[in-house]
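Record 1 of the preview.
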Amino acid sequence: MAIRQLSPETVNRIAAGEVVERPASVVKELVENALDAGATEIEIVTAAGGLSLIRVTDDGCGMDESDLALCVERHATSKLDSDDLLAIRTLGFRGEALPSIGAIAHLAIASRPRGTRDALEIAVDRGTKQPLKPAALNPGTRIEVRDLFSATPARLKFLKSERAENLAVSETVKRLAMAHPHVGFSLTMGERTGLRLPRSTANPDGMLERLGRIMGREFMTDAVPIAGERDGVSVKGFAGLPTLHRPDATYQFLFVNGRPVRDKLVVGAVRAAYGDLVPKGRHPLLALFVELPPTDVDVNVHPAKVEVRFRDSAAVRGLLIGALRHALEGAGFRATAQGGARTLETLARAQPSASRYDEPRPDLDFARAGAETGFAEERQTPFAGLDMPTADATAHEEAVSASSANESRPLGAARAQLHETYIVAQTETSVVIVDQHAAHERLVYERLKKALANGGVARQALLIPTVIEVGEDEALALDEKAAELAELGLVLERFGTGAVAVRETPALLGTSDIQGLVRDLAADLLSEGAGAPLRERLESVASRMACHGSVRAGRRLTAPEMNALLREMEATPFSGQCNHGRPTYVELKLSDIERLFGRK
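->
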């Protein structure tokens, strides 16, 4: 078959297949153009999921007659000062979006430059360019796309439902809005206003306000600021506390030089930074903004510009991990504030309604009983003894007499221990409930990690070695990892068939359940295998040791012990969650408790 030159119309439609995957792709290209034009207000309107109408209006710099005539030509762009593709400082630069869209739809562009009185409009009808004509428009640009894919109807078969396309459009606008808080956005889909974001300041407070409007007020409350810089690369943004997480990674956002991108780099960096701070299968919430010289990142690796390639990806990953870890450590013992709110909501739902007590009692005839002598006295609950606290409420008398100075501390003064499991503390403005086992588990774990980082865990030799039967496979797994276990202070060796002898244990664990610990470690080693990195295996073993060496539920604590636990929690990073990612305490604000009882 002879080689022939494709027509410009066919070339444009092929290019459209790369740039325009769905209506959200068109919205992305048009909004990026508006941002590059310096817009401060952008309005997006769609109908039928974007298939029948997409209209983007902005108050940017606008285009004059010559620019308007040239903007629909292929590879015509105002966003490259030269032919250097390594110095791209704008969101768009290919010069393919508008001609590609015009090749498969009805495209109309009206624009009026700032400082001028007249506006002009140009139309492209499925590849056919129309002459310029006058238009009525405020300074800025308005672009309308109608009957998308009308020139390529086969593409319509691969689109999803209108609801799914609307959701994709909304997600696209949200991502762009997160990166540009100083720009106001309005999104209307059909008859419904899907999004309205007023302009915010460009400082961290404005960024957090914009993120909170998109990611939820819960994120705004529980986010910690992220900041870091190294070798010309900087990162800023916000990350949620480890106790704030979701079942998927949809709320993890990465922006590179103001461009929202999808990159596996951030997924690995987040997993490494949070480590054991979140439960398995859960994902924290965050938004990170990376700034680096354009020459150190390639944004031209994907037609839709949704992926990038870093010149030194290891350095960027290291910066992200370091900045995240530093911020999470700085958060100290903080846990999500929503834990207390959810607790109060549960209590409120559990409260019986007033009507329950208003129902008539068949066993009481009030008309008859009211005439009886002494009715009130006989039926009143006796007051004797009500002024004496119950045993569960007091736990220990010394807890009640603890120094009130501790109430000014973040976790307050211990006032009681309930069910030998939960410590109740009082601050000046709240009530704090602490899970003593979960909290102490994290404290012991952090001590083990610190000792491990400083060269090894202190050991204590057993007077008589403890022989533990674990099974042949388990004994073999323990023997293979004996050197790693010794770094954590657990010294053991094979002892016959299916058994090991423990000679030394970590001093931090005291007289913990060594047999249960060794059996659990053997099961973990068999299930995890040898694929995990050494450091990860060591921390996993340390976590298991901490679980066995911490204060167990059911142990009665004295007031000094409870207060000492609270003070150590305040001084220990990550103590707001246990080794399994669950919160170690909830805080109930006094004002919320008063509302629960109708006092406010």
